[in-house]
Design brief:
- This protein has 107 residues and is α+β, with helices and mostly antiparallel strands.
- The protein folds into two domains: 30 residues; 60 residues, no CATH class.
- The chain has three helices and four strands, in the order ααββββα.
- The strands form two sheets. A two-stranded antiparallel sheet has the order 1-2.
Amino acid sequence: MNNRVNRRVIILLFAMIIATTSCATKELRVQEFRVSADTPNPAKPPEEFYVIGAGDSLAINIWKEPTLSGSVKVRPDGYITLPLVNEVQVIGLSTGDLRKLLAAAKG
C-alpha cells in the first residue's frame, strides 16, 4: 500500500514538472539565451590583445606604401626586419603595441 502511494506521488510530481515546463512558449524560452550581436566572444579575444611570439607570421600593411608592406616572420630572437625601420624587437608586444610602435617610427 505504501509503495503504491509513493509511486503515485512520484508520477504526480513528474506530471506537474512536465506541465509547468511545457507551458512557456518557445519564444520565451529562446529569448532567455539570446545574446546581442556586438557582444565580444570571451573565447576569442580581439586581435589588438594578441601577444606576439617567436615564429608568428605578421602581415604588415603600410597605407599607400605597397613596397613597404608584406609578410614577415618573427625570428627566434624576437626580432623582425622591416624596410626603413630595420630591426624591431616584437616578441612580447601586443599587436596594438606594435601598431603604435611602427606608427611612431614611420611618422
